[in-house]
Each structure stands twice: as structure tokens, then as C-alpha cells.
Design brief:
The chain has 852 residues and is mainly β. The protein is built from five helices and 56 strands. The longest helix has 11 residues. It is globular and about 105 Å long.
Length: 852
């Protein structure tokens, strides 16, 4: 793989014969192979490390072994040789303390001002190491990246899509039917300057209810870097650090922790479950469909779910035979400590908006937290709305070896739709502790509402929505009335619960424990329970799982118990075994999987199958299985998916004596930018447009399946805002004649930026030239070679040999070893050159270098 390479500095690569290497001495030039006084001087300069000519070159800057900058550095010749030049302003920005007299100087002699300091260029790695004593440094947080390096990106738009089509046909003895379902999720965006405009929605279609478009959210946002803040207008949600999260339409100004370096600064839940067949998992929250996907048989863990707010996630797993089971996942966060001196704040004004109709009051909310001494973080907030007022005050504290805890108390006053006013208090404790030495991660979050008069804002809104005709009407999904084979998003099994009393929340407990068993596997337990005022019913979910591996095989046992507020309950046990059968030289794997399950609602089932991957980077995956369910009998299934450079596709098919189920899916992105339209894999929030002209087919390292298209563009997704991201082209995939002098570029995008990274590419011929002067001597070693456009294309090695790439036929190259008119000569490239092939990546020429 090529790294950033100076075409003026390939001496180490081009001239291995110039070094004599021994175990007892450092590398040095063997001067016996060098002829001529001028060449001897140049060789001596190279041998002692002065192997760069004065000029300006791109370098990475490291301060005390930590990267802090990337910029073009000017090298000048002085009494000490050729050294990099830094201005006083640059060094001041790096946190280096300089005496007042050097202020404004454009080239500071750092080693003279700080005798213990070091400036060490590493030409082969294109980095300069500055070693400065701490006494000469101001306090700069570790990992800080200068904001001037943050890239706001370019103006561009995109569409991110996820399309899923399924068809279910039932041909049982009693009746026959066929249903088709289509689900399309779209995330659209437009970046204009520092503004990011976003819109999320989905389209659904089924035989019964027809077609529907749901606009989930639309908003615009921009960073205010000087305030470490972000301003948003539109539809969004508040944070849940002080109050429970609220969905709204309005405006919000808030601090942004991601702008802080890692040293100064941290949750969306993982949805776990087990499927008995090719199953569809759908997740709802606050009336929204927030996720829908197909999973193969076995345990699954969904990491990329992004709830709109805290609160319960309702998960439905619909098996291939139409049976389904449901469970809930609680979503809340633990104590959020701040370092001393840091502020976090949020101010929101708008209208309550959770995707359902009815009462939507206006409100204004403000929260603040401040890190103070003694590892304390006091926090608080105020919320004022129509018919509702609330205040919170609390404090978080680090308990050292005993973990971290936060305690807060809330007061609320609520005007009820049923008449009268309620006032109450709530007290909350959050605790977190990791016992790394025991492999234990323990988190406890307990909510206790001490009086029946306390309503949180969401409860206060729901109370007014549900009060109808002198009683409360609560709509909910009845899992006992599931339409067979229907995806969760298409379910119409709504039921209504009537009561004379509104069941506001009373007490909630959450426990999460993950325990490593030191070579004997690991066990986890997640449990949550919510009780309510005015009813003995409760919502509860308990999950316990054990997993381990032995000689490549993995196995696990998983148990789950759920109960809803409206009387539904379910219990299930799953046992899984996975054995790898083949792992080849391309790291493709074939795995055999067996699963046994018992579910209170759907009965017993088993499934066994084989799955694997193909292609060099495992982009093609497949699976086949057969099994039996108590409700659907014997069944067989197959699935296939492919991750391509322009998008991903997948398909599955299931069959039994009673039904057939087939599905097709596609996901990806489409980016519209100044260079045209580029198709991609599914887009992340922040991504990079790679431009590399004439580099069609060249891959991007660490981005499987991503390749430069025929227009010279590619999209890279796995980038992190406000952090260094390395974008590297796989130069082993370059075609003959293509030259990419700098194949690695780093970028620091801001949140949701669409950054453009330009790789300079030169396509022509790759040539190994044996050059001589007219008097049969050789051009000076170390001389730079330039094409007719002035591009530095190579360096002369021993015996006049030089390698150049990206050279046009008929071009005239200039070989230059000094500033005088006689310190150069010219190489005329023939107008006709042999065609290049992959087996012979370059052509050899013998040319005379003509002096002026």
C-alpha cells in the first residue's frame, strides 16, 4: 500500500543498492558507488538525513507523540541544514509558550528558544515530531483538534433508502389467501453551508389498508462552534438527562458534548431477541415505527436503532409461519457526570408532537448542569406548559471505587382534563458501576413516584388525550389478536382499555448486569418493571442469557418473560449451537447452526441450517435452514444478501405445507453533488465524497465493497464527527499508468457534514528510464524530475535511473538538481509508447538528457 509519498523523495525506495546494512552500524551510503564531486556532496547530504530540498510539502504534525495538525510545511536551508519553518502564531496555537520578542515572527528557531525541545522530521512517514517539555506548554486537553481543521463540508443532497417487499401465501386445508406488503423508509438531506436540512419518513402498502406515507420528522440544524452548541428548528426531541425526553416541533439550542475531545467527555439500547425462522423484527415507540428489518434464525442484536426519545420500545418478532411474539425494551440513561468547569445546557420552545393526534400543548423547557469540584455535578431544570408546570433539582457524584450515582427530586403541578388540579413529587436515583477486575458491568436505574399526584409531562398530555365521555379510553396493541403473517407495521390489532382512573406511573425499576465468567463464557440479565397508580397491573420484562465458545463453536441459552399493563404475558426459552465448518484463505466462513425453542404463545420449535460468506471481503452472505414449529409444521428457508459499492440487496424464501413466504429488499444511498450523482451503500449521518479522477475500480481501505466509480467518485460512510478520519485508497488495485502521489488523506468532519476529499491522480504511462547526459555521464542523483506542467514526478537514482508514472506520451521532462541555468537537462518522451498491461506495469526506456 502506498502512503503519502513525495515524488521528490523516493530515494529509499529507488536506490536500495545505495545502502550498506550491517548489524553493528546504521544505514549509510556506500560512497564507492558514487561518482563525481557533485554527486558525492548530494549523497553525503542524503546519508546524514538532509534528504529533502528546500520547498513546501504536506506533513502531519505530532506534539509529544500526539497528532495535532496536518498542513503544508515550508523547509528552508540554514546553518543546521534544511529544517521546517513554523511561525510564532502556529506554535502558540499548539500551546507552546514562547517569549514575547518572537511574536509575529514567521520562522521561529524553536530549538534555540527551548533548548530541551526537539524538531524531528520523518520524511518517509511525512510527519514532524515536536518534543516540548511540559514546562513550556500551556494546558491543552489531550486529544484536542484545532477547530480550524474542522471541515463543514460541501453543498450536497442525498436520499437514503431501505426498501422491503414481502409476499405471504397461505394454502392450508381450511382456506387460502395471499397478502403482499411493501415498506419503504426514506431519509433525505440537504447541506447548504453550515446548515443541515433533514427529513425522515416511510411509505407502507398492504392489501387491506392500501398505501400510506408517514412523515416522521423534518428539521434544520447548524453548529455554533464558538459556543460548543447546536441550534435546531423543526421536529426533534429534548434530551433525557434531567427531564424525560419530549418530542416537539419548535426550536432548540443546546451544548454538544461530541465537540469536546475524548479526554473531556457518553446511549441507545441494544435490542436483543431470538428468531426461530426468517423473521421480521419491527420496533415501535410513541406511536412511531422506528425500525423494521428481516433477521435469520437464531439470536439477534440490533445495535443501530435510534429511538426518538427515552421510553419503552415495543418489539414484535413475526416468524415466517405467521406466529409472533412481543416484548418491551426500556430506554433510559445513567448518571451523566461532567468534568470540573464544564457546562451542559439546553433551551427548548415549541409544541408537543409525538406523532399522534389530539392534545398538543405549547411548552418551554430549560435545563443546565455544571461540573464543579469534589467530583460533583449539580443539575436542574424548569418546564412550563399549558396546564402543567414542573421543576427538577439534583446532583450527580462520583463515588470513586463504588461507582457513580445521581439523586434528584421533581415537583409537578397538573390541571387534569377530568377536573381539579394535582400536585406531587417524584424522586429518582441512578447508579452505575463497573467491576473490571471481575468482568462485571452493573447498572441500576430506579424511578419512584412518591405521590399519586405526580404526573410527568408525557402523562399530563396523555391524561387529556384519553379523557372521553367521562372516562379514560386507552388504545393499545393486543398481541393475542395478531393477524397471521402480517408485519408489525401493518398490524391493526388495536384494543381499547376503559377506566375511571388515569393510571399514571408510580414506581419503575431497571436492572442491567453483564458478567464475564473468566473463560467460561458470559451471562447477562436485563429486567425492568413499571407499576401504576389506580391499578394492580404492571409492565415487566426479564431477560437472562448465557453464551460461551469452545474450540471455535459457540453456544447459548436465553430465557425471556414479559407481561403488559393490559394482561398479556409470554415466556420463552431458546438454546442455540453454532459450529464453524470451513474458513478459507479469504476468511470466508461456513457455519452450522442449530436452535431449539419453546414459547408460551407459539409452542415448541427447532431449526437447523448452514450459513456462510463468499467473495474476498465477505460481501456475499447466504443461509439455508429447515425446521419445525408447533403452529406451522415443517418448514424450509433460504436467504441471500450482497453488499455492493452502489447499494445492498437481500432476499429470502420460506416454505411449508401451509404457507410460502418470500421477500426482497434493497438499501443504499444516492448523493447529488457538484460532480454529479453517486450511488452508495446505506449512508451514515456524516459521510465523505471521495474524488479520484481516472481511478475507476480502486477500493477504499476499511470500507468493504466501496470502489471508485467510472466518474471518479466513491462514498465513504464510516467517519466520526470532530475526530480525525483516515481516507485511504487501495493502491494495490491501481491500473497500470495511474499515479496517486498521496493516497492517504485525513479529514475532521463536523456533525452531519458531507465532506469532499480530493485525491490528485495522474493517468498516463509508467516508465523506468535509464538516462545519460550527452557526455555519457549520469544526471546527479537526487535530482528532481518534473513534467511539462511542473508536477514533481520522480527522483534520479544511481546510474541515472529514474521511475515516473502518469506521464503522457510525447511529454518533455525536466531533470533539475540546482538553481542555476546549467543545473538541469531535458528528457523527451517518445510520441508513441507501447500499451501497458497488468503483467508488465511499466515500460523501460533509454534516453539522453539534453542540457539547455
Amino acid at each position: 500500500m502506498k502512503k503519502k509519498i513525495f515524488r521528490s523523495l523516493p530515494l529509499v525506495v529507488a536506490l536500495p543498492r545505495m545502502f550498506v546494512i550491517s548489524a553493528a552500524s546504521a544505514e549509510e551510503f556506500n560512497m564507492q558507488f558514487v561518482h563525481g564531486a557533485a554527486n558525492m556532496n548530494t549523497a553525503r547530504e542524503v546519508s546524514v538525513g538532509d534528504s529533502i530540498q528546500p520547498g513546501t510539502y504536506p506533513f502531519d504534525i505530532y506534539l509529544n507523540s500526539e497528532k495535532i495538525d496536518s498542513l503544508s510545511v515550508t523547509f528552508i536551508r540554514n546553518d543546521n541544514g534544511v529544517e521546517p519553518c513554523f511561525s510564532a502564531e502556529q506554535l502558540h496555537n499548539y500551546g507552546i509558550i514562547l517569549p514575547a520578542p518572537v511574536a509575529g515572527q514567521q520562522c521561529v528557531d524553536l530549538k534555540k528558544l527551548i533548548p530541551d525541545g526537539k524538531v524531528e522530521p520523518d520524511i518517509t512517514r511525512q510527519r514532524i515530531d515536536l518534543t516540548i517539555p511540559q514546562t513550556s506548554m500551556t494546558v491543552v486537553p489531550k486529544g484536542s483538534i484545532p477547530t480550524r481543521l474542522w471541515d463543514e463540508g460541501v453543498n450536497a443532497g442525498f436520499v437514503n433508502y431501505n426498501l422491503d417487499y414481502s409476499k405471504n401465501s397461505y394454502h392450508g386445508s381450511s382456506s387460502a389467501s395471499s397478502n403482499e406488503y411493501t415498506y419503504l423508509s426514506l431519509s433525505n438531506g440537504l447541506n447548504l453551508g453550515r446548515w443541515r436540512l433533514r427529513e425522515n419518513g416511510n411509505y407502507t402498502h398492504d392489501n387491506t389498508s392500501g398505501s400510506h406515507w408517514n412523515n416522521i420528522s423534518s428539521w434544520a440544524e447548524t453548529d455554533i462552534i464558538s459556543m460548543r452548541s447546536r441550534f435546531l428548528v423543526g421536529q426533534s426531541s429534548t434530551s433525557n438527562s434531567v427531564f424525560d425526553s419530549i418530542q416537539f416541533r419548535g426550536v432548540k439550542l443546546s451544548s454538544v458534548d461530541d465537540m469536546l475531545p475524548d479526554s473531556m467527555r457518553n446511549y441507545a439500547p441494544v435490542v436483543r431477541g431470538v428468531a426461530s425462522s426468517n423473521a421480521r423484527v419491527t420496533i415501535r415507540q410513541n406511536g412511531y415505527l422506528v425500525y423494521s428489518t428481516t433477521v435469520p434464525p437464531g439470536p439477534f442484536a440490533i445495535h443501530d436503532i435510534y429511538p426518538n426519545t427515552s421510553g419503552t420500545l415495543y418489539v414484535t418478532v413475526t416468524e415466517a409461519d405467521g406466529s409472533s411474539h412481543q416484548f418491551t425494551v426500556a430506554y433510559s440513561s445513567v448518571a451523566n457526570m461532567l468534568r470540573e468547569g464544564l457546562w451542559n445546557y439546553e433551551v427548548t420552545a415549541g409544541r408537543y408532537h409525538d406523532g399522534t393526534g389530539g392534545y398538543n400543548p405549547d411548552f418551554i423547557q430549560g435545563t443546565v448542569a455544571r461540573g464543579i469540584s469534589h467530583n460533583l455535578t449539580p443539575y436542574g431544570g424548569v418546564l412550563i406548559a399549558d396546564n402543567y408546570q414542573s421543576a427538577v433539582a439534583g446532583i450527580g457524584s462520583s463515588l470513586g471505587a463504588f461507582g457513580a450515582v445521581s439523586l434528584d427530586g421533581s415537583y409537578a403541578k397538573t390541571n387534569l382534563a377530568s377536573g381539579g388540579t394535582k400536585q406531587g413529587q417524584s424522586y429518582r436515583i441512578l447508579y452505575a458501576k463497573s467491576l473490571n477486575e471481575l468482568g462485571t458491568d452493573f447498572r441500576l436505574a430506579g424511578y419512584r413516584y412518591s405521590t399519586s399526584g405526580y404526573y410527568d409531562f408525557n402523562d399530563a398530555v396523555q391524561e387529556r388525550r384519553e379523557w372521553k365521555n367521562g372516562q379514560y379510553e386507552s388504545d393499545y396493541i393486543d398481541p393475542n389478536d395478531v393477524a397471521t403473517g402480517t408485519p408489525g407495521w401493518a398490524q391493526t390489532n388495536n384494543a381499547t382499555y376503559y377506566s375511571n382512573v388515569y393510571a399514571n406511573k408510580r414506581q419503575r425499576m431497571e436492572v442491567s448486569i453483564n458478567q464475564s465468567l473468566n473463560g467460561y463464557g458470559s451471562i447477562y440479565m436485563n429486567a425492568n418493571q413499571q407499576t401504576y397508580w389506580g391499578t394492580s397491573e404492571k409492565t415487566r420484562t426479564v431477560q437472562v442469557g448465557y453464551s460461551n465458545s469452545w474450540k471455535g463453536a459457540s453456544y447459548g441459552v436465553y430465557w425471556q418473560s414479559t407481561r403488559s399493563q393490559y394482561g398479556y404475558s409470554d415466556n420463552s426459552v431458546n438454546v442455540t449451537l453454532s459450529i464453524p465448518l470451513v474458513i478459507n484463505s479469504n476468511n470466508n466462513v461456513i457455519v452450522s447452526t442449530t436452535q431449539l425453542a419453546h414459547d408460551q404463545q407459539s409452542g415448541d420449535s427447532y431449526n437447523t441450517g448452514v450459513s456462510g460468506t463468499l467473495l474476498n471481503d465477505n460481501r456475499l452472505s447466504y443461509g439455508v435452514s429447515t425446521g419445525h414449529t408447533q403452529s406451522g409444521g415443517q418448514n424450509s428457508s433460504a436467504n441471500l444478501s450482497y453488499d455492493g459499492s452502489k447499494g445492498n440487496i437481500n432476499g429470502s424464501y420460506s416454505y411449508s405445507s401451509d404457507y410460502t413466504q418470500s421477500s426482497l429488499g434493497a438499501s443504499g444511498g444516492l448523493v447529488v453533488h457538484s460532480g454529479g450523482v453517486t450511488l452508495s451503500q446505506p449512508l451514515g449521518d456524516t459521510f465523505v465524497i471521495v474524488k479520484a479522477k481516472d481511478a475507476q475500480g480502486v477500493g477504499v481501505l476499511n470500507s468493504p465493497g466501496v470502489k471508485v466509480d467510472r466518474f471518479g467518485y466513491a462514498i465513504v460512510n464510516n467517519v466520526t464527527p470532530y475526530r480525525y478520519n483516515t481516507i485511504a485508497l487501495d493502491t494495490e488495485q491501481m491500473r497500470p499508468g495511474l499515479d496517486i502521489p498521496q493516497s492517504i488523506i485525513q479529514t475532521v468532519p463536523t456533525e452531519k457534514a458531507i465532506v469532499r476529499v480530493n485525491f490528485n491522480t495522474f493517468y498516463g504511462h509508467s516508465l523506468l528510464i535509464h538516462s545519460r547526459l550527452a557526455d555519457n555521464s549520469f544526471p546527479q542523483i537526487g535530482a528532481s524530475v518534473f513534467n511539462s506542467q511542473g508536477r514533481n514526478s520522480g527522483t534520479v537514482g544511481m546510474n541515472g535511473d529514474l521511475y515516473v508514472a502518469g506521464i503522457a506520451a510525447g511529454d518533455k521532462l525536466t531533470v533539475k538538481w540546482g538553481d542555476g541555468p546549467a543545473d538541469k537537462c531535458y528528457l523527451q518522451i517518445p510520441a508513441k509508447l507501447d500499451a501497458q498491461t497488468k503483467t508488465m506495469g511499466y515500460q523501460e526506456l533509454t534516453l539522453t538528457c539534453q542540457r539547455p
